[in-house]
Amino acid sequence: xxxxxxxxxxxxxxxxxxxxxxxxxxxxxxxxxxxxxxxxxxxxxxxxxxxxxxxxxxxxxxxxxxxxxxxxxxxxxxxxxxxxxxxxxxxxxxxxxxxxxxxxxxxxxxxxxxxxxxxxxxxxxxxxxxxxxxxxxxxxxxxxxxxxxxxxxxxxxxxxxxxxxxxxxxxxxxxxxxxxxxxxxxxxxxxxxxxxxxxxxxxxxxxxxxxxxxxxxxxxxxxxxxxxxxxxxxxxxxxxxxxxxxxxxxxxxxxxxxxxxxxxxxxxxxxxxxxxxxxxxxxxxxxxxxxxxxxxxxxxxxxxxxxxxxxxxxxxxxxxxxxxxxxxxxxxxxxxxxxxxxxxxxxxxxxxxxxxxxxxxxxxxxxxxxxxx
Length: 373
Hints:
By secondary structure, the protein is an alpha/beta fold. The chain has eleven helices and twelve strands. The strands form two sheets. An eight-stranded mixed beta sheet has the order 6-7-8-3-9-10-12-11, sandwiched between helices. A hairpin with a 2-residue loop joins strand 4 and strand 5 (138-139). The N and C termini lie far apart (54 Å).
């Protein structure tokens, strides 16, 4: 077993957070310092203009002046179960713009990986998908298999949670990277390009002659990133890429993704249950709960002063498993006319038990909570 040799990027101390009166908020500053989000500036164009804060009425994205790359409109996913029709995705909207890094956060079972799989049509055929999915303006739901293949792994590079399961155990690393290059008709699929890709993810030339089982978990995930970059994608979709790694390696790999996103001018969708890691790499964070988006906003604002009680709990607990003595999370077969989070909320209102809150704009962000209505 070979040892992981990752590179940790140095980071400056985050600047103090100030309130509306210009006074430093010590608690918020400590939280921003902990989550490192000040290292991720809001994207600007050549004239130094930052994205506008105008929100789509039924969307989850804070609109940007940049070109829209991936757009998901009113997405629903349903599947038949012994208990009835489960709806793991319920009316979700998501937009990712060129050069933008977006974090999708929530606990296991909230629907974040299902959303990503639906966006590239990787769900099983028995799962019903409703709504609209557009890639550079093209309706993904209407594409044929060959056109989908060009997008998946080509325009959209994918990094999955389990690299050992995704890599071929009988092929050497170099051969698998070359295969990815050939599959997407990349002219240069020789050893030189393979070594370039390995170098981009901080792996030496010797790795190309090894099999996946001879690598550490972190090295295997770096190989997966190299394969995802092989065809020169516009969007890197990373679904829980570090969840199986130790904490130091998690930070190294997320810093690598952030560095690649900036150097290669990629768009990034980073899916995780860890707000701290997402804050290191993403300028905008989308929080999901029970198949719905509950909060969206710029990383610094969301981490310093969350609007939704679920986001606050995630910040305090890392990944919440549910307060002791309270009911289990909202089941995806249950009726929708209520607040899904109210059994776990510390400040529920009477209307939470019979009215589903809408996603509304508040302070330049979006929040689905009666407390912010």
